[in-house]
């Protein structure tokens, strides 16, 4: 097996990433968005979609100030 | 707030709880539930115990800021705000269609592709051709990881795991990002630095991108405050602008609540104006400036500022402004102008045919006045007393008090150029001074008729048709908002009265018959024939 793609649940991904890291298998997250999945200095895990914190920031920006005037901090707030 | 007790739900719940206070929310209760639980009865009971409405994915309650202004004595003004970030709320394409009430105004940005980009289309096209089945757009997100992985495998040119990993780390794919017009680029932790959520909201049953700013296609809308105690039909009447439901008579209590809702809507509009626009002279001025800015496309009013308007989702539409603000004021202004015109004409005009009868000369041409005078003399009575100036002043003061103290007169100050922008919103041509038009019309007609009557031995300025009716005709002819038009109308009406005397008997009779058309024309267009409308 060259790489692993998935899963849907963040809870499952949290357990799977330990195995993929141990076996040095690239692990591409499919739909798991929990923040802590990429934490811990892991080297074989990748995620293309924004983590949950990005959605939270987007929601907060929308309610707080409609996102106006805050686009300059997109790299940190929207990621 | 309800969330699952797993990794995802707990993480998201922590974010929401941390952000809630910073934006002024009051988190009523946090209710985690087991992802494997087939029954949520216990959790829903907790939500109901917290005085929440129908359960949702996330629910946050807050009190409007103006609730503080009422000293906390208005519990009905507690606003409910449905929020989102639901986990896969849009994954099922039928979810929104089957849950219109529940999902309206719901936010989400999780598994829905960004419709601003073309990424999902090539993802779904080959599958659609192969399986002859239409993919839901949400499924396109699932194709990103396999697509990216295939690209990296091709670039690594090997199945070695370390080479594949290095290809992921080092290679910056030239394939467009499915969500943005950028490239996929991983940082040291494995996160895509160009990943950006597209915050979507269900508006009128369709997801609309409302954030971030670079991608959004519409403004986020928040449900307005609910008026507690109103039934569905009455609440619907609030949404329709106060008109009662078809076939349902409005009760006085409901009418009072509707009026209170309207006042709150006005207060919300004024507050929105205060926050969004530069203050000017007063609240009304800011209000009008806000509306003008909205109509010009330079500002928008969130739907939270319109009480009861849950149907509108994003920005405050022009029709809403038209219904809530402009139409009532315009009607008031038109009625007020009509009354003011008649009142001024009555005040400036003659006291009436009965009073005139005693002062008319013997060569008076008015047959009705002659008959009246003859009847009075036969009855032995003298000339009737002329209406005292005090009586005329009393009429004028009563009219003034009526205009100042009633709803009809409320639109008067703005309509009469005290607030030009408001008058323009009501459809009055503010380039001309409508205040002078009705008052100038009657003297103009009198003046022109008096000039013409000098050449006639049988005509006097005060004889014949009632003077106030003549002034009204002049105003209608010249235009209520048109000062020049009033003068022109006076010029036409005054000499016409004299010229008609010199017509042959047949033509004079025909001209007299046309007189009946004037009141009908006045009723059809009380704003005047030449009153131009620059807004509406």
Task: Explain the layout of strands and helices.
The complex is a heterodimer of chains A (79) and B (536).
Chain A: E1 4-5, H1 10-23, E2 27-29, E3 45-47, H2 52-65, H3 74-77
Parallel strand pairs in A: 1-2, 2-3
Chain B: E1 2-4, H1 7-22, E2 31-33, H2 41-49, E3 58-63, H3 65-69, E4 78-83, H4 94-98, H5 100-103, E5 107-108, H6 120-131, H7 144-156, H8 161-170, E6 199-203, E7 206-211, H9 232-239, H10 252-276, H11 283-295, H12 318-348, H13 353-357, H14 367-378, H15 389-405, H16 407-410, H17 412-418, H18 420-425, H19 436-453, H20 467-478, H21 483-501, H22 505-513, H23 517-524
Parallel strand pairs in B: 1-2
Antiparallel strand pairs in B: 3-4, 5-6, 6-7
The proportion of strand residues of chain A reads 5-15%
- Mean of residue pLDDT of chain A? 70
Number of helices of chain B: 23
Assign a percent range to the helix content of chain B.
40-55%
Q: How many runs of DSSP E, i.e. beta strands of chain B?
A: 7
Structural class designation of chain B? mainly alpha
Beta percentage of chain B is 5-15%
Distance between the termini of chain B: 45 Å
The strands making up the biggest β-sheet of chain B line up spatially as: 5-6-7
Number of continuous helical runs of chain A = 3
Strand order of the largest sheet of chain A: 1-2-3
The largest sheet of chain B is:
3 strands, antiparallel
Task: Write down the oligomeric state.
Answer: heterodimer
Mean pLDDT of chain B: 55
Report on the structure:
Chain A is an alpha/beta fold and 79 residues long. Chain A has two domains: 1-48; 50-79, no CATH class. Chain A is 41% helix and 10% strand. Chain A has three helices and three strands; from the N terminus they run βαββαα. In chain A, strand 1, helix 1 (10-23) and strand 2 (27-29) form a beta-alpha-beta unit. The longest helix of chain A is centred in the first third of the chain and has 14 residues, at 10-23. Chain A is elongated, with a radius of gyration of 15 Å. The N and C termini of chain A lie far apart (30 Å). Chain B has 536 residues and is mainly alpha-helical. Among the domains of chain B are: 120-197, no CATH class; 330-352 and 388-524, no CATH class; 354-386, no CATH class. In chain B, 50% of the residues lie in helices and 6% in strands. In chain B, helix 1 links the parallel strand 1 (2-4) and strand 2. In chain B, helix 7 packs across helix 8 (161-170), helix 12 runs parallel beside helix 19 and helix 20 (467-478) crosses helix 21 (483-501). Chain B starts with a strand and ends in a 12-residue tail after the last helix. The C terminus of chain B is likely disordered. The chains are: A alpha/beta (79), B mainly alpha (536). The interface between A and B is large, with 53 and 57 residues.
């Amino acid at each position: 097996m060259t790489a692993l793609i998935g899963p849907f649940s963040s809870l499952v991904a949290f357990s799977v990433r330990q195995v993929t890291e141990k076996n040095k298998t690239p692990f591409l997250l499919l739909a798991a968005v929990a923040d802590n999945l990429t934490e811990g200095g892991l080297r074989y895990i990748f995620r293309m979609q924004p983590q949950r914190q990005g959605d939270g920031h987007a929601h907060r920006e929308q309610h707080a100030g409609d996102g106006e005037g805050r686009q300059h901090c997109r790299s940190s707030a929207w990621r | 707030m309800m969330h699952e007790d797993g990794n995802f739900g707990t993480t998201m719940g922590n974010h929401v709880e941390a952000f809630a206070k910073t934006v002024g929310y009051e988190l009523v209760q946090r209710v985690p539930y087991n992802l494997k639980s087939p029954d949520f009865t216990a959790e829903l009971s907790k939500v109901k115990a917290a005085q929440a409405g129908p359960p949702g994915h996330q629910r946050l309650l807050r009190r409007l800021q103006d609730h503080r202004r009422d000293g906390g004595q208005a519990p009905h003004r507690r606003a409910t705000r449905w929020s989102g970030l639901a986990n896969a709320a849009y994954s099922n394409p039928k979810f929104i269609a089957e849950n219109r009430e529940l999902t309206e105004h719901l936010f989400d940005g999780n598994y829905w592709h960004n419709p601003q980009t073309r990424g999902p289309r090539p993802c779904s096209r080959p599958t659609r051709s192969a399986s002859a089945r239409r993919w839901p757009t949400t499924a396109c997100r699932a194709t990103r990881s396999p697509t990216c992985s295939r690209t990296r495998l091709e670039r690594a040119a090997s199945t070695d795991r370390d080479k594949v990993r290095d290809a992921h780390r080092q290679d910056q794919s030239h394939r467009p990002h499915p969500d943005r017009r950028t490239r996929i680029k991983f940082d040291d932790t494995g996160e895509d630095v160009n990943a950006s959520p597209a915050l979507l909201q269900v508006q009128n049953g369709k997801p609309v991108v409302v954030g971030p700013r670079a991608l959004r296609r519409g403004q986020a809308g928040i449900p307005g405050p609910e008026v507690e105690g109103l039934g569905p039909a009455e609440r619907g009447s609030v949404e329709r602008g106060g008109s009662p439901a078809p076939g349902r008579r409005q009760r006085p209590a409901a009418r009072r609540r509707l009026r209170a809702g309207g006042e709150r809507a006005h207060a919300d509009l004024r507050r929105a104006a205060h926050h969004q626009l530069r203050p000017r002279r007063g609240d009304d001025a800011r209000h009008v400036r806000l509306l003008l800015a909205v109509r010009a496309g330079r500002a928008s009013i969130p739907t939270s500022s319109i009480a009861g308007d849950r149907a509108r989702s994003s920005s405050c539409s022009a029709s809403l402004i038209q219904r809530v603000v402009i139409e009532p004021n315009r009607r008031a202004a038109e009625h007020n102008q009509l009354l003011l015109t008649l009142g001024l004409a009555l005040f400036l005009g003659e006291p009436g045919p009965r009073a005139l009868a005693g002062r008319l000369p013997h060569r008076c041409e008015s047959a009705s006045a002659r008959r009246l005078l003859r009847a009075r003399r036969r009855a032995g009575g003298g000339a009737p007393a002329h209406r005292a100036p005090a009586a005329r002043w009393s009429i004028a003061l009563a009219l003034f008090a009526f205009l100042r103290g009633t709803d009809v007169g409320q639109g008067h100050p703005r309509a009469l150029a005290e607030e030009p922008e408001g008058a323009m919103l009501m459809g009055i041509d503010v380039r001309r001074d409508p205040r002078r038009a009705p008052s100038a019309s009657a003297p103009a007609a009198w003046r022109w008729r008096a000039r013409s009557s000098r050449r006639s031995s049988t005509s006097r300025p005060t004889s014949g048709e009632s003077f106030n009716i003549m002034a009204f005709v002049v105003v209608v002819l010249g235009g209520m908002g048109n000062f020049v038009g009033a003068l022109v109308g006076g010029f036409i009406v005054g000499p016409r009265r004299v010229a008609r005397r010199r017509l042959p008997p047949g033509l004079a009779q025909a001209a007299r018959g046309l007189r009946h058309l004037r009141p009908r024309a006045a009723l059809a267009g009380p704003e005047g024939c030449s009153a131009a409308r620059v807004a509406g």
